[in-house]
Amino acid sequence: MRIDLHAHSNASDGTDSPAELVANAVAAGLDVVALTDHDTVAGHAEAAEAVRGTRLTLVPGAELSCRVGGVSLHLLAYLFDPAEPAFAAERELVRTDRFRRGRAVVERCRELGAPISWEQVERIAGTGSVGRPHIASALVEAGVVATVSDAFTHDWLANGGRADVPKHETDPATAVRLVRAAGGVPVFAHPGAVKRGRTVSDQVIADLAAAGLGGLEVDHLDHDEETRARLRGLAADLGLLATGSSDYHGHRKTVRLGEYTTDPAVYEALLAQATGVQPIAG
Ligand code: AMP
Ligand code: FE
Ligand code: FE
Ligand code: ZN
Question: Would you say 214 and 273 are in contact if contact means Cβ atoms under 8 Å apart?
Answer without folding.
Answer: yes
